[in-house]
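Supplementary Note 2. Why include the ligand at all?

Several targets in our set were suspected to adopt different conformations when bound, so apo predictions alone were not considered sufficient. For every target with a known small-molecule partner we therefore ran a joint prediction. The input for alpha-L-rhamnopyranose is given below.
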Amino acid sequence: MSILRKALTTAALATALIATGAHAETKRIALVVKALGIGFFEAANKGAEEAAKELGDVEIIYTGPTDTTAEGQIEVINSLIAQGVDAIAVSANDPDALVPALKKAMDRGITVISWDSGVAKDGRMMHLNPSSSALIGNTIIKLAADHMDAPGDVAILSATSTSTNQNTWIEEAKKVLPNYPNVNLVATVYGDDLADKSYREAQGLIQTYPNLKAIIAPTTVGILAASQAVTDAGKIGAINVTGLGLPSEMAGAVESGATISFAIWNPIDLGYAATMLAYNIANGAKAEPGAEIPMGRMGSAKLDDNNEAAMSDPFTYDKSNIEQFKSIF
Ligand code: RAM
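The joint prediction is reproduced in token form.
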């Protein structure tokens, strides 16, 4: 080929790429969250954007329904399929209800993973847990027990009744109850990760159980609402609110004493890791038992027999360290 011909061919190719927007190589990864407006997921999105910046050829589509329903997520997923995104990384409001829509996505060649709150095996290629579920279950009970010097009533304020992650953690928490004789679990109620419903459910617990010593909310929305309800009821010091929260949202509750301590993993890291996994699988990494899929600065995810992996351990926050973390997430 003459030099002139080659130059022309290259120019023609460049023109063609510009004509298609030169986006042929860019991966569009949708981060589908339980609902918009939840600080935990906004922090995860920061991590997803960080991963996209590092990778250079990724566009993040941060999306989800306005409330925490499976129906809302199915609509979102169908629209992502219509848009022809490259990957969907979902935190599910229900383990089973999303499966048909996600199967359809996979049939069309879209990479599908779940993270945070899982989808049943048939509906995703892999699932990224934030930590070991057994460890989280034990942690939330221990957080309550550590501040009880006598037996007392304890209640759980969860997210939705179909939420995969909270249901798994509660199941694990119940298994370790015999190790914590002071914890008398009296009820589990659901605030649906809505601030007002969670607040009302916490108020209901305070009224129904006069000997309540702790409320465990394994949800960032629930723990914040419960600490507010305990504060408004004048019960600081009598009822300790604990569970999983964000330092940025819980600093006031720790300061007032409504919450002595709580735990969480880094949600920015979780969004970052989920994005890295979706990207690598979309680019050909095989999600199969035993595989180790890279997650950038978070190391790699080693898949178990269910194609699941865990990111890192939760960390406990209290008066001694919350100031340091409240500006981060
Ligand atoms: C809420 C959501 C999320 C959960 C955290 C702890 O933000 O329910 O799924 O992981 O709490």
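The CA atoms of residues 125 and 287 lie 6 Å apart. The pocket of alpha-L-rhamnopyranose is lined by residues 34, 38, 40, 91, 116-117, 159, 165, 193, 219-221, 244 (CB under 6 Å). Comparable summaries for the other entries are listed in the accompanying table.
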